[in-house]
Design a protein that fits this description.
The chain is an alpha/beta fold and about 800 residues long. The chain is about 45% helix and about 5% strand. A hairpin with a 4-residue loop joins β1 and β2. The longest helix has 26 residues.
């Protein structure tokens, strides 16, 4: 399959692919045929086949849709949606439309749907369905919708005796290749915990708790901390004074109408998402920690996960809870464990060693539970010959976090084999089960309280020795926890936003940009594959056109050959093709780009009515399925929308569009022809701004950042229009490249840059809807900052927040 998912496609699906290949269909066509039709079959199953053929992507995307048929789904219907999301990789509108175009190229005899075209995307699914269908396909789709999908499992191999393995070791800046061998006894004694190390299902029920009961837990903590204070000489600041903290809490439930519940006895009811809002220091964290203690003391069958903002807070909180319930970090099983990623283990260890909490424990002679989970001993390193340890590792320990727990490779037998980047399968370290640095995984199954961070939830995986499913910690938390508490939710949501809306460099003048990298690989592929499948041709064409659009964008903004008016225009923040053209429409109407704060509501409504007819042209252009393929109307020269589409086509086909005077003149002609009163409106705006400044007796900047005398001319508006159309063009091409990544040349092995969120985590974390719906965003940064990072020869750097479709330019 072309996409990575948490579950395997059914065996029948794979078998049918092979049968279609033997029958004469190409593998990509066969896969596309089954995937698209499974999307249509899902809509029919949900009784949504009276929707257009373009609708399935919205269901696949996981967006919250207030549709009557989606509000009361039964268990089988929810399973059908979940199964289809795992099998069909078209969860974005542009990817689905691209798949439909490719689907229409499949011979009609193979297809179950036919009555729609790119010019008629509004066709209903029920009308597009053929009366005589391939029954074998219909039966296959029904099984795919109703079956229980199996988890996709990562493959693992165990080491063998008599074989030399190698791993990459890093003790400082240098990375060296280290050989290692294992004895027969070591291999025999290796214990790999069988799957599942947790029960794969966990029964959850609603839960209620009297807030007043937490006072008893607070008193119990105070008593326990009193014992610890006598044992380790705590001062007053080390104690929590939990009863006092609890009595400051003023908890009230809020009814749907916004009023408080009348009963005196307040009850916290948990069933699905529950929000506890309050001012800073109002006791929200106190409630969450007391709730954790209540769960451990009184509900032995429940597990709670606390999500905090940073690693050191997670370690500190785990240490605190364990001292409430335990006495010996060396020999007792912990009640709470911090679940952290491993790649930053070295940084975690250094921060922990320097933390105030750890130093205070050391000073009073109290062990810290964090030492249990941040051990650095690596038994594999003990297997190295003394000569290798001294010569290769320079007598230093392995850097924490880069231990080769599941990345051992067979030592190549020849120098030629050594030069290959891919050395074959990876092997599991046989010492994992007893490794001190892996203690946290041995503590996790029995721990009642997990403490983690949003970064670990989103990005950290699990060791293959224990978990063969390719899941993240967040997915394990969702599966194995009864309660998940997000403390300081605004910081956590920001972390998730920043994680899933990853800043991806489009181009930076080097080799780290997406288009810097794939451009070379695309051309190398094309040298030996001049004839390629239509879907791949579309992708490679969009990639090349995106390169031209990037060049045009950077040229229009360049200090030497670009235009200052454009640099000023975008320096104020993120922008989209929609927002650029909206502000351009306000300029055409003789208005400021943003309403002045003193503008009355009546005048604002009048201005909106003035702008609305202009905006309709741009909406029609941007809502067009593909402006580059827009069909002419009966009188194309008098059609403003088609003229804009033709301008985009000219910009796309002209290599030096940014400096082409013909394109600039065509933009200027469009303004003059369709809005002949523009100059008069701009002159009136100029007078209004001058009068406003005279009346205020001070020179102040207008809300859009322009000086009072910087009102546009027809000439500057032409540059704005050219730039906005260029950005719309770049938006079109990057959508194809990102959302049709599965059609890329086979020489590009990179993961898709547009999506970091695992498919199985959709609708699990409390994230806002992905911004794929809203287009591509851009913004401008600072010149000085750019030069310090990328060098003075680079005029601009393009970045992209790709998962939520938010891109921006920084220079």
């Amino acid at each position: 399959m072309s996409q990575m998912s948490l579950f395997e496609v059914p065996t029948e699906f794979k078998d049918r692919l092979e049968q279609l290949k033997e029958a004469g269909l190409e593998r990509t066509q066969a896969e596309l045929l089954l995937q698209v039709e499974l999307g249509f079959a899902l809509m029919e199953y949900l009784e949504l086949d009276d929707e257009p053929v373009t609708a399935p992507w919205a269901i696949l995307s996981g967006m919250p849709l207030r549709h009557p048929r989606l509000q009361n789904l039964n268990q089988m219907e929810r399973r059908a949606i979940a199964n289809t999301r795992q099998i069909v990789p078209f969860s974005a509108r542009f990817a689905w439309l691209g798949a439909l175009r490719s689907y229409l190229r499949i011979p009609l005899d193979w297809r179950n749907y036919h009555e729609f075209t790119p010019q008629n995307w509004d066709s209903y699914i029920i009308n597009a369905a053929k009366n005589l269908r391939h029954q074998v396909h219909q039966d296959l789709y029904e099984r795919c919708l109703n079956t229980n999908l199996d988890f996709r499992l990562r493959k693992v191999k165990r080491v063998e005796t008599g074989t030399t393995y190698q791993f990459e070791a890093k003790t400082g800046e240098e990375t060296v290749i280290v050989p290692v061998r294992f004895t027969q006894q070591q291999v025999r004694n290796a214990q790999i915990q069988p799957l599942p190390w947790f029960a794969t299902t966990r029964s959850r029920t609603s839960f209620s708790l009297r807030i007043s009961d937490l006072e008893l837990d607070a008193a119990w903590i105070d008593q326990r901390e009193e014992e610890l204070a006598r044992q380790y000489g705590w001062d007053q600041t080390a104690r929590g004074h939990w009863v006092d903290r609890f009595r400051k809490i003023n908890f009230h439930k809020v009814q749907q109408n916004g009023t408080l519940f009348p009963q005196e006895e307040q009850i916290l009811e948990l069933d699905g998402f529950t929000n506890i809002a309050g001012m800073v220091a109002s006791g929200k964290t106190t409630v969450s920690q007391l709730f954790s203690v209540n769960v451990v003391r009184h509900h032995c069958d429940r597990r709670i996960t606390l999500v905090v903002s940073d690693v050191q807070s997670a370690i500190k909180l785990a240490n605190q809870i364990n001292w409430w319930f335990c006495n010996d970090p060396e020999n007792e099983d912990p009640v709470a464990v911090p679940i952290l990623g491993r790649t930053q283990r070295d940084a975690h260890l250094r921060s922990f060693s320097a933390s105030k909490d750890y130093r205070e424990h050391r000073q009073r002679g109290q062990p810290h539970w964090g030492e249990r989970w941040l051990g650095t001993a690596c038994p594999l390193q003990g297997q190295l010959k003394e000569r290798d340890f001294i010569q290769l590792l320079d007598g230093k320990a392995l850097k924490p976090g880069i231990e080769p727990c599941h990345t051992l490779k067979k030592m190549p037998k020849s120098d030629r084999s050594k030069r290959r980047k891919n050395l074959g399968s990876s092997y599991l370290c046989p010492f994992f089960d007893k490794c001190p640095s892996q203690q946290v995984y041995r503590d996790m199954p029995n721990a009642r309280v997990w403490i983690t961070t949003p970064g670990a939830m989103a990005m950290a995986g699990l060791p293959r020795h224990l978990e063969l499913r390719p899941i993240k910690i967040g997915e394990l938390v969702n599966e194995q926890s009864d309660f998940v508490v997000f403390d300081e939710i605004e910081t956590i949501i920001k972390w998730f936003d920043d994680t899933y809306a990853e800043e991806v460099v489009l181009t930076d003048g080097g080799n780290s940009g997406v288009f810097d990298d794939i451009g070379v690989k695309t051309e190398q592929f094309s040298k030996t594959n001049r004839v390629m499948p239509p879907s791949t041709q579309r992708w490679t064409g969009a990639e090349r056109d995106a390169q031209k659009a990037i060049t045009a964008t950077l040229t229009l903004l360049d200090k030497q050959v670009g235009h200052q008016v454009l640099r000023n225009w975008i320096k104020r923040g993120y922008f989209t093709p929609n927002s650029l053209l909206f502000k351009f429409a306000r300029r055409l109407a003789g208005l400021e780009e943003f309403e002045h704060p003193d503008t009355s509501d009546a005048l604002s409504r009048a201005n909106a009515r003035l702008v609305q007819p202009i905006v309709r042209y741009f909406d029609a252009l941007l809502n067009e399925d593909d402006p580059l393929r827009m069909q002419p109307s009966s009188n194309p020269n008098r059609d403003p929308v088609f003229r804009l589409a033709r301008l985009m086509q000219e910009i796309n086909s002209t290599g030096e569009s940014a400096s082409d005077e013909n394109i600039y003149r065509a933009c200027r002609a469009w303004i003059i022809e369709f809005f002949p009163n523009t100059e008069r409106r701009l002159a009136r705006l100029q007078t209004e701004l001058e009068n406003r400044n005279q009346s205020s007796q001070q020179q102040r900047r207008s809300p859009n950042g322009d000086e009072p005398d910087s009102v546009d001319t027809v000439e500057t508006l032409a540059y704005r229009l050219q730039f906005a159309l260029t950005i719309a063009l770049l938006d079109r091409h990057t959508r194809i490249v990102f959302y049709e990544w599965h059609n890329r040349p086979t020489s590009i092995n990179d993961d898709s840059p547009h999506r970091r969120m695992p498919a199985a985590m959709l609708n699990i974390l409390p994230l806002p809807p992905t911004g794929r719906q809203f287009g591509t965003y851009y913004s401008r940064g600072n010149d000085d900052d750019k030069r310090s990072r990328y060098g003075s020869n680079n005029a601009l750097t393009l970045f992209a927040y790709t998962n939520i479709g938010r891109c921006y330019i920084a220079y």
